[in-house]
Amino acid sequence: MPPSLKDIVEGALRVATLGWRVVPLFSEGPKAKSPRIQRWPERASVDPKIIRNWSALAAIVDQDGASTGIAFGVACGAGSGIFALDVDVKHGGSGSW
Prior knowledge:
Blueprint: H1 5-16, E1 22-25, H2 40-43, H3 48-54, E2 71-74
Antiparallel strand pairs: 1-2
């Protein structure tokens, strides 16, 4: 069973308590894992009110009427104090760098 919207938002709020800035993402369709907001690096937030307001984006559907869902990601970098390295096996993995 997939997580409920409540569970997704609560997870984002828990991450935000660590000081990690979160950003809403599309969870389904061709834009899956892409940010749902413009200027997301500047707008990523730890503010619970903003994060809860972003949950309303889950109700938005695409031009065909299909749900685009919602997920949250962490904006890595100085603002969150964490950094990530994504080694993608599909694109050469460690041999590509």
